[in-house]
Amino acid sequence: SAYVNAFLVLNAFNLFDALVIDYLVLTLMQPRALHVPGIEGMEYALRDPRMHITNYVKGIVFCAVFALPIAAVVALL
Question: What is the average per-residue pLDDT within 7-29?
Fold first, then answer.
């Protein structure tokens, strides 16, 4: 149960990042304050929803891997 709990907590942060930060802010709102200098002409990469979905899936794998040591530490305490 410690592993499932750690995985769900990490994945909640991953989901927040994918929906709020990546999709809502970077893809839909596109604020000028978040423009990175030096990427002129490549802004399309930030607005591509496929990239954000791919990164979310990579985040799920990250959550699955890093939930193991977190659960081990919690189980030992």
Answer: 91
